[in-house]
User: Fold this.
Amino acid sequence: PEAAELAAPEDKIKHLRSFGPSVVILTHGASGASGFPGNGDRVDVAACKVDIVDTVGAGDTFNAGVLAKLGGLNLLSKPALAGIGSGPISQALEYGSKVAAITVSRAGANPPWSHEITSRK
Assistant:
């Protein structure tokens, strides 16, 4: 089955892990996101609250934000991801949520510039 067809998050994680990733991330739209590092922890992060104008590009921007934060922490290598803990996953999910929130607060797939992210609380 496809991961999207599975109802329980635990079943989705198990299915996705069968393909070999060290980290699995599930997004829940306005309800936030969950990260599952290889150590078995679960990290939940709330979505940033904004007035939504357009959701186009939200998922792509979220993923880019997560990868940008992990890259900034030098955690994108296979060994680093295999040993990653809850703290860096939480930071990455929070950053992804922040950049996605900026994207959905304006029209079109219009991701933020870095200065917009650092100036936003």
